[in-house]
Model the fold of this input.
Amino acid sequence: MDYTALAVDLLDKMQSLRKVEPHKHINEALHGEMFVLLYIAFRGGDVLPGEISHEMEVSSARVAAALNGLEGKGLITRRTDSSDRRKVLVGVTEEGRDFAEKQYRAMLEKAAELLSMLGERDAVEYVRITGRLAENILTQGETPPCCN
Done:
């Protein structure tokens, strides 16, 4: 099988999919401020900015910018850790939690909308294949040999 030709076709289709509203909504929720807010809200407690940076695989400066934006909107709080004053703990406000839950529900609705376009059989198969790909990549370590 010519996997290169198939990859060209896949990349072309992925590019087209990026323009579709439900996919755009989901993609935006998995990046930037929204990702940070969802991460904090669903962790169930305060988090360190370094944890967010590690999870997102971005610089601490990028996380700081997202935190500044979220704090300015009243969605998160930052405070000094009482047991180690060098650490800053980030928590979610009630407004932030409500907003995060609303956005998460919207993201689920958009994902369900996309999956419903495939029909039951193809939707189940798509999720299975995506899971298999993720599992294969994760078992090879953080960066698979193909992507170094």
Observations:
- The mean pLDDT is 88.
